């Protein structure tokens, strides 16, 4: 894609005085912006302006001519002296659209009445849809904002309200001047809202807001976490939160998960609101992590901002790691790092093993590329693993000292990644750039082959990619973190061999699972480690790590998935939720191999029941008195395996519980399972319609998620067709949630082909609805993660290859073809081995 010119190089703004008259009913706004700044080049000043109707332009009070150019350019004639302070005044009009970026409406229903909020989303480059500006991260300035709105509404901005008055059926709200910040961080929300308020120990006002459709009680958890997180970051970063307040707003419609607007953080309702006794532990933990993620950006991203979008990855990688540090401090009893191991780590490794995957650090030539280059599994999850690896490598104290120095030196400024590495290097006296460069610029990750030969340990590294170990030139400096001190701290060569005097302990690599590699142990070493699992000599992290690594090796064709069966038996007495999450995942891998072979699938169902029965007998369908949160969460994984076994007594019990009370009153962690047990055999189309109507009317986001999870377990194709058609109706399913409905339906083997056919038949609607959204490229990726027959490969190629010219889709189309081909190869080569192993159980 053609590189865009950096407009900050010809005009440097210092202040925006922005006034907007918002007409929600007419879907339009009138704006006036006065921009103070310095013109660096003669003849013209160029600003970003997209889909704005410019009415007048003046420089220092004198009207001047203007024109529109490519790359959203507003070109203003300027014959003044360069480097002099000037004042641009621009009057314009714009439209409020349903794109979920720029200025847009959010829809909700309360007590049978349809209502709306007006909100903004300016990251990455959508501020230009609201006002002419230098819409680049380096274009930092202060902002004075005045909004004219309908009366009797709440009006929120980045800063506290400076003054507010009513007249002429309008409410005028002026906010205090912001600190120096980038345009993408400006935000406002207008509408009917209610809130709860608290203050941090040093007086920062914290508010959580939601529409009247949400209960007051649903705000409490987020408020508590937000206050404690700000207090923690104040101490951890050594730099105080720089604004007088911090609002957290739950929006009914939001394309992203959340957005770190400075002082006015916006969220999807599902990741901010926690309804007592209704929201699950899983969702509650997600809410805490998302709040901690967005609050970390108030320092890392807002106070100190990347110079250009090349380093947006660093913002997200940092926040995706430090959120766990914060929540681990606030809620140590959650053992939140186990969620990192079973979530971010696995997500990153699996995506990073596919040929064609991007590196963490990529050149961004145009902001439109951001959605094509910023793969969540890589930028967020892998990036977080690499930041955790760095923290482990230099030590916690050095990590904190480096951050403090970085924030103090670059507050209210822009930086590049090298500035952060320099800060860490100076305090730790370690070669941080030397460690990080290869990991950030090379896609993929190494697998270390580990073997013992006599009294020597031999290690060799190769790049793991798709279906084999490649002979690429890629080489990584790998923090080995071994249980043998004789091995080096970093492995920087292709192969090492080290003599060990005492080899009495089984070799274990990557202790703590903090580095981004996996180990392919020799048969003897693997057997020794499996025995340690069986006899309770491995901790939770080790057990999760071993099973995940063996699963990845089998996916890559390096080992057989048949070897997972004896490995899983070593976990039969396991009683930890994080480990059961990986056990369930491993069974899921085996399901994909045998799903088209009824005899083998029946054997796998019996096997799943065998390993899950002990814990199911202990946990059952009902919460135990004073049970741990780990048990409450583990019940989901164990009971899902029991339902998979098709034991009719277990299914009947789940159905009876589902019918016994209103859905939202069922146990939150497993109600979706109980619905799926009921719905799997349902052929009554009216039941499907009634559930969809319930989904439409219920306002609690977590309940909606569980209805989606349960309802997409339908096996009847006619009923499934009705469900899929309702997905297109925004009165039922909001556009932000469509992806989840389609993804869950594709994972259901009984309606997989039906859903895949529906997706292709309705592609014009998908394109029209999502082409401007970050989720657009997820559709080919999602399909490729599921499709598993030669016919489906051909359908995928025939359908998507003509779309390779669409930049946002190209990478996921290419990777999708690779992924499906790899799956077919595994089915052909490994399928017979797995089926034979199941016969011999």
Which labels suit this protein?
alpha+beta, eight-stranded mixed beta sheet, 42% helix, five-stranded mixed beta sheet, Neutral Protease, domain 2, 27 helices, Immunoglobulin-like, 841 residues, globular
How does this structure look, described?
The radius of gyration is 28 Å and the shape is globular. With 841 residues, the protein is α+β, with helices and mostly antiparallel strands. The strands form seven sheets. Strands 5-4-8-2-1-11-14-13 form an eight-stranded mixed beta sheet, with no helix packed on it. Helices cover 42% and strands 21% of the residues. Among the domains are: 1-101 and 129-179, Immunoglobulin-like (Sandwich); 304-441, Neutral Protease, domain 2 (Orthogonal Bundle), CATH 1.10.390.10; 445-526, Immunoglobulin-like, CATH 2.60.40; 560-645, no CATH class; 647-743.
């Amino acid at each position: 894609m053609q590189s865009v010119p950096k407009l900050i190089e010809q005009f440097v703004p210092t202040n925006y005085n922005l006034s907007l008259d918002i007409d929600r009913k007419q879907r339009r706004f009138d704006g006036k912006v006065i921009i103070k700044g310095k013109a660096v080049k003669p003849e013209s000043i160029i600003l970003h302006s997209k889909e704005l109707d410019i009415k007048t332009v003046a420089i220092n009070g004198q009207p001047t001519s203007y024109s529109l150019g490519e790359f959203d350019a507003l070109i203003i004639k300027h014959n003044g002296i360069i480097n002099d302070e000037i004042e641009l005044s621009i009057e314009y009009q714009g439209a409020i659209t349903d794109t979920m970026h720029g200025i847009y409406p959010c829809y909700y229903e309360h007590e049978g009445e349809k209502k709306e909020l007006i909100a903004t989303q300016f990251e990455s480059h959508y501020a230009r849809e609201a006002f002419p500006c230098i819409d680049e991260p380096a274009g930092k300035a202060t902002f004075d904002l005045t909004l004219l709105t309908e009366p009797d509404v709440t009006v929120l901005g980045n800063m506290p309200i400076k003054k507010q008055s009513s007249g002429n059926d309008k409410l005028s709200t002026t906010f205090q001047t912001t600190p120096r910040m980038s345009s993408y961080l400006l935000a406002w929300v207008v509408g009917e809202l209610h809130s709860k308020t608290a203050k941090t120990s040093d007086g920062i006002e914290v508010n959580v807001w939601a529409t009247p459709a949400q209960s007051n009680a649903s705000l409490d958890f987020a408020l508590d976490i937000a206050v404690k997180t700000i207090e923690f970051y104040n101490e951890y970063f050594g730099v105080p939160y720089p604004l007088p307040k911090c609002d957290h707003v739950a929006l009914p419609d939001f394309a992203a998960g959340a957005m770190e607007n400075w002082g006015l953080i916006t969220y999807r309702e599902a990741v901010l609101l926690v309804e007592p006794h209704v929201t699950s532990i899983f969702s509650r933990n997600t809410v805490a992590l998302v709040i901690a993620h967005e609050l970390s950006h108030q320092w890392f991203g807002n106070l100190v901002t990347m110079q250009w979008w090349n380093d947006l990855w660093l913002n997200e990688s940092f926040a995706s790691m430090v959120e766990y540090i914060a929540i681990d401090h606030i809620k140590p009893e959650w053992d939140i790092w186990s969620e990192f191991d079973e979530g971010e780590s696995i997500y990153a490794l699996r995506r990073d093993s596919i040929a064609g995957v991007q590196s963490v650090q990529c050149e961004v030539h145009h902001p439109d590329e951001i959605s094509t280059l910023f793969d969540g599994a890589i930028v967020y999850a892998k990036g977080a693993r690499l930041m955790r690896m760095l923290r482990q490598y230099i030590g916690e104290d050095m990590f904190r000292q480096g951050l403090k120095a970085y924030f103090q030196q670059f507050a209210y400024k822009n930086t590049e990644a090298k500035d952060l590495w320099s800060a860490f290097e100076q305090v730790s006296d370690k070669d941080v750039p030397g460690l990080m460069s290869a990991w950030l610029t090379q896609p993929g990750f190494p697998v270390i082959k580990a073997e013992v030969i006599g009294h020597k340990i031999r290690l060799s590294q190769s790049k793991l990619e798709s279906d084999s170990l490649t002979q690429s030139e890629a080489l990584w400096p790998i923090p080995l973190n071994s249980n043998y001190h004789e091995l080096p701290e970093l492995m920087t060569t292709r192969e090492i061999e080290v003599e060990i005097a005492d080899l009495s302990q089984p070799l274990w690599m990557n202790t703590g699972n903090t580095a981004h590699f996996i180990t392919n142990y020799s048969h003897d070493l693997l057997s020794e480690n499996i025995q340690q699992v069986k006899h309770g000599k491995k901790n939770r992290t080790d057990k999760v790590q071993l099973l995940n690594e063996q699963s990845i090796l089998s996916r890559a064709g390096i080992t057989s998935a048949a070897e997972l069966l004896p490995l899983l038996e070593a976990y039969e007495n396991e009683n930890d939720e994080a480990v059961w999450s990986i056990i369930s995942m491993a069974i899921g891998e085996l399901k994909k191999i045998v799903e088209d072979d009824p005899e083998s699938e029946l054997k796998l169902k019996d096997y799943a029941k065998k390993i899950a029965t002990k814990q199911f007998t202990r946990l059952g369908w009902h919460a135990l008195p004073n049970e741990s949160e780990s048990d409450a969460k583990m019940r989901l994984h164990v009971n899902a395996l029991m339902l998979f076994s098709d034991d009719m007594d277990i299914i009947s019990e789940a159905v009876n519980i589902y019918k016994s009370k209103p859905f939202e009153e069922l146990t939150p962690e497993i109600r979706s399972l109980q619905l799926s047990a009921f719905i799997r055999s349902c052929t009554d189309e009216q039941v499907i319609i009634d559930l969809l109507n319930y989904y439409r009317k219920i306002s609690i986001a977590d309940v909606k998620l569980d209805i989606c999870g349960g309802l997409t377990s339908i096996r009847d194709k006619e009923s499934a067709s009705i469900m899929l058609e309702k997905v297109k109706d925004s009165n039922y399913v909001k556009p932000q949630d469509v992806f989840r409905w389609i993804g869950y339906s594709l994972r259901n083997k009984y309606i997989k082909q039906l859903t895949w056919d529906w997706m292709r038949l309705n592609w014009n609607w998908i394109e029209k609805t999502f082409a401007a959204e970050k989720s657009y490229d997820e559709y080919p990726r999602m399909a490729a993660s599921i499709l598993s027959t030669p016919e489906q490969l051909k359908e995928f190629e025939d359908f998507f290859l003509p779309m390779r010219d669409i930049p946002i889709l190209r990478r996921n189309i290419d990777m999708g073809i690779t992924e499906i081909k790899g799956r077919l190869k595994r089915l052909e080569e490994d399928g017979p081995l797995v089926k034979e192993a199941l016969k011999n159980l």
